[in-house]
Amino acid sequence: MAHLLRGKFGFKVSAGGLRPAVLSLSRVNFTSFNGGKYHQYDRNERIYRKKFLLDVNNLSRPFVIPRRSYGMLIARAVRGVLKIRYLLLGGAITGGMTVNKKYEEWRDGLPDLKWLDEVLPDTDQWRAFNKNLSTTLASFKNSIQLDPRIKQAGENKIAELRDWFDTRLENAIEAAEEQEKKENGFEKTERSINALRDFVEAAKTEVLKKGTVQAITFGGSDEGRKKAETLQQQVDQLQTEIMNVQIKYQKELEKLEKENRDLRQQYLLIKTNRKTPLKKIKKSLIDMYSEVLDELQGYDTSYSTADHLPRVVVVGDQSSGKTSVLEAIAQARIFPRGSGEMMTRAPVKVTLSEGPYHVAQFRDSDREYDLTKESELADLRREVEIRMRNSVRGGKTVSREVISMTVKGPGLQRMVLVDLPGIISTQTVDMATDTRDMIKHMTEHYMSNPNAIILCIQDGSVDAERSNVTDLVSKCDPNGRRTIFVLTKVDMAEELADPDRVRRILSGKLFPMKAIGYFAVVTGRGRKDDPIQTIREYEEKFFKTSKLFQSSKGIMSHQCTTRNLSLAVADRFWKMVRETVEQQADAFKATRFNLETEWKNSFPRLRESSRDELYERAKGEILDEVVNLSQVSAKKWDEILNEKLWEKLSNYVFEHIYLPAAQSGSQSTFNTMIDIKLKQWADEVLPTKSVEVGWEALQREFSDLMEKAKKSPDHDDIFDNLKHAVVDESIKRHSWEDKAIDVLRVIQINALEDRNVHDKHEWDTAVRFFEQSVREKLQHNEGTMYEMFGPSTTERWFKWKNCTEDQSKRRQVKSELDRVLHSDAKHPPTLSYDELTTVRKNLQTRNIEVDTDYIRETWYPIYRSHFLKQALLRAYDCRKSYYLYAQQGTDCEVNCSDVVLFWRIQQVLKVTSNALRQQIINREAKRLDKEIKSFLDELSDDDDKKVQLLTGKRVALAEELIRVRQIQEKLEEFINALNQEK
Question: Exposed, middle or buried by CB within 10 Å (0-12, 13-18, 19+), for 633?
């Protein structure tokens, strides 16, 4: 029995009773309690040992081994409870791991816990199990005891897990709330955009209302009329300002809308937790054709290739109703209108196509306008007006810049129409002087395309003789093979004009021009706010009840209504497209081959990069050079700043501080004057000049880095103009931080307050600095004297140089002034009256007449040279006098006050250069980087500026080749789609 117990449980039975076997604690790895058993893991022997904890005080009692079945029952029960806990905690961990996801995904990602219903027992089973477990544990209470450390560790672990789970749950709830806030933010952004539009419109309406009321109030008398005219001018000016503000806000709105769209896309991607595969959307045939025309717009080449693709050109006299015809075909009021004012200021290309929803969209914008909503229509008209005003520059009234838009809707005929400004016969004073000719040339340019369909609009309510457009159409299309004539406002013509005259117009017998078709339409009832549907109903009713058209034998029914007009135009349009598009593609294919051949011969080792690609490369190189500013060492910055500081400040130090004080003749007076002048200098001049030095040093280093980049083997000189422009513009824009001047002033004043040289090394450095500065001034003064007195005797004899008459006279004066200085080595800086008189009389004995000002002017450089030489002698004496100065201070026998002055100046230069260096590295270089980035961003949107800065044959040829290649590829893609449709 004892052998069995010792072998199975690790106990020994002896005469003294049962005692546990002794285990080596040094080899125990860790302990745990599981199922009422104490486990020990031996690190060395890897033996798993088990034994029951025994009450040491009760070892004398008979030992009874509990049955194994009870132990296994307790183990299974505890394991089941812990398993359920771990499952619950595992679910919590799973939810916490996804806290960075959005609320919906977190909620969908929670595990399905229905399986717990099968694992967890019901209430009665739990009660029975709990009762049995309590009884069993009570029976083990006296025989089994938990280690307090294990118990405490378990409780701490459970508490830690509970806190962790609560924290994860709170984070998940906060993430869900944050997601709801972000979704609400999208709606707030849209509401802000709409509110901003409403504010601009309300401001414009209020200004016009006030101007109208005040104009009526002042009307009547001459004075009132003058006030009304003045007020009207102010109202016009305010209108212009409001329009400018509206243009500015429109750009901001477009940015907000784009950001809003991007945020929504990001939100959807995060919500689905996967990237949505980008599907290639199949474009409609007319959209593909419209893109080809957009590519051709503005294409210019030296080759014979021209844009001969068909489009419908809408031409007519001003206020003839051509815009209304286009709107009737598009079935929406998409253009701004005004009473008697020219509204169409630029060509508008409208691509019509059939679609399930009636929407409009600009080519360069992602926003879609719902044409079934009046608010969206108002926004669209406002956007068209803004784009037209933006296209007009340089005091012009009209522009050649094309505004491209697409209109889709049920029942729309597929075609491309170009609405041009109306032809005018008289210019008003508010128009540019070349407006009429510009409109005429623009109209002729579009109609000269041999494949363009001319939609000639004629106002039926006015006399035909007043028409200007018919003559232009006759010149461009004399045979009328591509002209469609449209007579508008026939409801008014029926009342005002001769019916026979209207019949002759529609039969082609009145105008000298010819056409392939004649149509009569009604595009309104005289009310500009009528919806298109109302106008179409009115038009159909008119043609059904009109006596003129019902009784006319020469007018067919298919010649009436805008519906029949749009069908006829679309049919003719596609017929011409099919006839001409392949010829156009072949022409561009040949042009592409020629351009590629020229590129290979001119630039065989370069890839054809567009202007935008080159700009991005240059932008990267410029920003890299800005980054290199941070790589400049502190030592180099100190050298640059010290050099430039002394270069800018030395003249002021000598002329306004040192020389006036040093020439006072007294050491005490010298020190007093120095303190006063240094204080004034630090308060007024020094900080400002120091900031100038810092900015010039930053500018110089940046320019040097750009110049060094030119010497690299990878340098491309095509970017030089752009880089120079960026450097110049950034220098103009950058200004030193204002608060830095005040901080610098305090640092400099504190540095100048120190008047004691601290050690021998600083003393020697100050002496060298003083000597070097004096020698530089002495050298500069000798140059002045050379110009004043001419070459020396040696130069005159050996280099054959002669003196001028004035130089010879000054030499005579100098000889007299040298005597004065030789007689008194400590002579003051000015000549006395007696000395001036003596010099004049001595010169008169030599027949030289000079005045006192002439003598003083000659004296000034002579005395300065004498004084500076004496200062060098004092510097030599002070070189070995530091210890004498350290003992006696200002009472030193050797006068070294000027050395102390230059030491103070040297110290202020050190602290200034250090402060400027820190300001440059920590603040100014980063601010310069932001300004350069801002300017580069502005340039990226300014195509005209990029054309000016990135020039040369390489750029022009690459741009043309890329453009032709894009056009030719789009043409081939369109032809393939067109053939498939056949």
Answer: exposed
Query: Tokens 């080809």 map to which residue?
Result: 292
Q: Is the dihedral of CA 253, 254, 260, 264 positive or negative?
A: positive
3-state secondary structure of 874: helix
- DSSP class of residue 921 equals I
Surface-to-core class of residue 868, CB atoms within 10 Å of its CB (0-12 exposed, 13-18 middle, 19+ buried): buried
- What was the pLDDT predicted at 408? 93
For residues 274 and 268, give the distance between their C-alpha atoms in angstroms, rounded to a whole number.
9
Cβ contact 111:98 at 8 Å: no
β-pair partners for 369: 360
Cα 755 from Cα 898, distance rounded (Å): 12
- How far is the C-alpha of 894 from the C-alpha of 885, rounded, in Å? 8
pLDDT > 70? residue 798 = yes
Residue 533 has which token pair? 């549907």
> In angstroms, rounded to a whole number, what is the distance separating the alpha carbons of residues 806 and 809?
5
Q: What is the Cα–Cα distance from 363 to 294, expressed in whole angstroms?
A: 9
Scanning the structure block, which residue is given the tokens 């500013």?
629
Query: What amino acid is encoded at 262 in this protein?
Result: D
How many residues comprise the chain? 982
- In terms of DSSP bridges, do strands 37-42 and 48-51 run parallel, antiparallel, or are they unpaired? antiparallel
Contact 572, 313 (CB under 8 A): no
**Chain centre to alpha carbon of residue 30:** 62
CA dihedral sign of residues 185, 188, 190, 196: negative
Q: Hey, CA dihedral for 151, 153, 156, 158, is it positive or negative?
A: negative
Sign of the CA dihedral with 73 first, then 74, 75, and 81 last: positive
With b meaning 16 or more CB within 10 Å and e meaning fewer, what string describes 491-521? bbbbeebeeeebbebbebebbebebbbbbbb
Residue 745, CB-side half-sphere exposure with 13 Å CA sphere: 14
Phi and psi at residue 454, in whole multiples of 5°? Answer: -95, 115
Rounded to a whole number, what is the distance in angstroms from the first to the last CA of the chain?
A: 104
Residues 743, 745, 749: CA angle, nearest 5 degrees? 125
DSSP 619-686: HHHHHHHHHHGGGS-HHHHHHHHHHHHHHHHHHHIIIIIIHHHHTTS-HHHHHHHHHHHHHHIIIIIH
* CA dist list (Å): 9 to 37, 45, 51: 11, 17, 5
Q: How many CB atoms lie within 10 A of CB 145?
A: 13
| Confidence label for 768 from pLDDT (cuts 50, 70 and 90) | very high
pLDDT in tens, 340-381: 566 788 899 999 998 889 999 998 888 999 999 999 999 999
Cα separation, 87 vs 111, whole angstroms: 10
Task: Tally DSSP H helices, then E strands, for the chain.
Answer: 34, 14
What mean pLDDT is predicted for residues 213-237? Answer: 57
Amino acid at 423: I
Give the per-residue SS3 of 652-670.
HHHHHHHHHHHCCCCHHHH
pLDDT tens for 875-912 read 888 888 888 777 766 666 667 888 889 999 999 999 99
Q: How is residue 560 annotated by DSSP?
A: B
Contact 962, 610 (CB under 8 A): yes
What is the number of other CB atoms lying within 10 angstroms of the CB of residue 929?
16
Predicted TM-score of the model (pTM): 0.56
Which element (helix H / strand E) includes 485? strand 483-488
Strand partners, 417: 312, 350
Q: From CA 284, how far away is CA 281, in angstroms rounded?
A: 9
Distance between CA atoms of residues 611 and 952, nearest Å: 11
Are 121 and 29 contacting, i.e. CB atoms less than 8 angstroms apart? no
